[in-house]
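Support request, priority: normal
Reporter: lab tech (M.K.)
Component: structure prediction queue

Hi team, I submitted a job for Germin-like protein from Linum tenue yesterday, and the status page still shows it as pending. I've pasted the exact input below so you can check whether something in the sequence is tripping the parser. The sequence length should be 217 residues. Please let me know if I need to resubmit or if it's stuck on your end.
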Amino acid sequence: MHNNNPFLVVLFVAASFYRGSDAAASFCVGDLTRQPTPSGYPCKNPENVTVDDFVFTEFVKRVNTSNANKASIVRANSTTFPAFPGLNGLGLAVARADIEPGGAIPLHSHPAATEMIYVAEGSITAGFISGASNVVYVKKLNKGEVMVFPRGLFHFQVNTGKEHAVGIASFSDSEPGVQLVSLAIFGNDFPSFLVEKTTSIDEAEVKKLKALLGGSG
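Reply from support: The job had stalled in the queue. We restarted it manually and it finished. Here are the results:
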């Protein structure tokens, strides 16, 4: 039995058109042979898209942590090298963090993105500072657990365990940005006497930290 209600016919056609359009525009694999724009790479010809465009294999490698923080990060979005073309235009970025026992990802913020971290190996003590109330939220995360850090808030990850730890982080923007608190204060030419006045840290200590972190002034 056919339904000749014109309203239902129009609704069905509109819904079908919407689904088709949505499917066609649901991704834009980046064409890495072309120049990127502020919003990402132009779309690759759909005929040249393969499943490998949606797979990133660099996270299978352990990251070199031979540095003062005993921690390192490998980031992935559509414009990093090696690039992850399948993320192009999706407003996402991901990262792998390797942290040795006693190591840390220092206090930092991402101005443009919320971060979520999944502990893939070991354990990580993580936390963030509330912007409104200055409350510190800290939790030791074990393998398989997840924590979220709201956009723009200062946060950190520390390996307080006895084993190598790995965290996989995702970001709600392809370019989350990052500002390390220590480098923002002591890693530049911010005059030491002004740092002292604005932080209440003794000027001699300020100069010591500047020397340690590559700052001047």
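The chain is about 20% helix and 25% strand. The first helix runs from residue 6 to 24. Let us know if anything else looks off. Ticket resolved.
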